[in-house]
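Think of the structure tokens as a kind of shorthand, similar to the way a musician reads notation: each symbol stands for something richer, in this case the local conformation of the backbone. In the example below we present two proteins back to back. Begin with the first one, reading the sequence and then the tokens, and try to describe in your own words what changes along the chain.
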Amino acid sequence: MIKTAMVDIMFTTSTSTTMISVLLAEVKTISYNSCISSMYIYHLGDITGCLSLSLMGLDRTIAISTSLRYSSILTNPRLFLLITATWLIGLGVMGVVAAQADSLPYCQPIIRYVFCDYPTMVRAACVNPEPYWMLPTILGLWLIGAQFTFILLSYVNLIYTVVRLPNNESRVQVFNTCICHIIVVSCYFAPKLVSVLLTRIGVKLNLTERNALLIMATLLPSLINPVVFCLKTKEIRNWLEIGSDTVHKK
């Protein structure tokens, strides 16, 4: 949960400051170093966020399917190694992406989108962009294809486990355990899948529509995550109830 909060903060702050300056303050300039730095942080947050969802899916699968062995399988050292691996993978992948973006010749200082990401920088370069789409295509297949497929398969296993449970009370308990993750996964992958499907069926979006979809894919998961996890966390829910009672007494 702490790692997810860190990723959300990093993911949104890398773009929201630029979007606010463009949309509200009408400050439409950004330095090259700021642009490529925000691009690096933005995609790093995207990658680590996706891997975090996969780890959460793995956690729930082990907790429900092999509940008696959960503590022996997901020990603290193993969890630390898994979390460290997600950051190392993200940093390594983004090192390659940032190096390719930095190697491009930029001769036009115009960015068409509301914040800097890899496609924005490629389109701003004075090169034929087609050869440079291979890297984001591979990355997208890995994130949307492999990670989303892994999460779906984990829930297939969970459904199979739930069907075998002896009573409805146990099924409800499993559902309550998984509902937070289902909501967050839906908010994260839905805009990305819509964008991919629209592209595949030949629907062409104008600049405003692309910006709107990009903003939704960036901000929606980070807005939903704190609400969902806070309300489902017993300690935070109790703290909110105590705070509410204190206000009423005053």
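Once you have a description of the first chain, move to the second and do the same.
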Amino acid sequence: MEQGKLFTETSNKVITCRAAIAWTTNAPLSIEKIEVDPPKAGEVRIKIISSGVCGTDKHILEGKDKVPLPAILGHEGAGIVESIGEGVTSVKPGDKVLMLPLPECRECSSCLHPTGNFCLKQSILPPTGLMLDGTSRFTCRGRKIYHLYGTSTFTEYTVVHEIAVGKIDDDAPMDTVCILTCEVPTGFGPVFNIAKVTPGSTCVIFGLGGIGSAVVMACKAAGASRIIGVDIKEEKFPRARALGVTDCLNPQKLKKPVQEVVVEMTGKGADFAFEAIGLIETIVATLESCHPSYGVGVIIGLPPTNSQLIFDPTLLLSGRTLKGGVLGKYKTRSCIPKMVTDYLQKKINIDPLITHKLPFESINKAFELLQGGHCIRCVLLF
């Protein structure tokens, strides 16, 4: 029997399933029974198989990044199409797919631009918490629940726009490839697409969590000769060194600002610097760590809501560059499924970026591991 036929009993019907709901900030997620509506025109309902737990989800729960609540968080997901709405042509029930937090409509000015990827139908900046028609597909206790970035992967079933779904190889390992929707492209893209790291160069990475670890791997692959890792949690250092970091710095144990130490270590500053935390002070430190004439700094982490960046403009006047990009500037539907194929063909290795796998019901344990610095990425299995 084809996989798609397994879902005929639920097609066009409301599905009752489990989801982890963030009712408020600074509180554990609550696993609840929810109702998931059928997909509307241009939408896809997906049975989640695995989901990564990202630092952005943690920042939302801490109240640093504001999103509409109550919501089903999660934006790194792999699953199987359960049913499709009217007009959907790129996937069918039974297909293995990834849910993409940044869509690719292939119609807006960003998507049509050769290098643009920040689709104007996105719901990240600012986060609306709703589908494109302004409504939600989730209900719990008679109350509508918000989506996150059009994905919401901390649930057994979700509804996503077709423009945010990527069909992947039938033999893709579903307990692993979910991290290709955020952790891997968000780490690899700044190195290969944005900064364009060169062989023999010196790089510094602020933050050695999931994204920072992916940046380290990419810098090593690009041929960087020196990779400086910065983090306040030294338990991350052994794993970082194993991935390619040559020097580890804990800013809390330095006698001067870490950017000054980086400049001293490198002579005049790093060739490339990456901020993978999402704090204003580390963004400024990233820029100040760059070589004054040609250093390139890249903002990766999502800063706290309504924060403002203030720095000395002469830092740029001398020749430094400060750049940014969501999902590594990859055109998501076009590029990310190809990364799955590359992984299957052993052209890239993402396995070291997953350190823990837990059952979905242990989701709060996953956040504890993340908070304590004890994991690079934890994948939840449904």
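Compare your description with these statements about the second chain. The radius of gyration is 20 Å.
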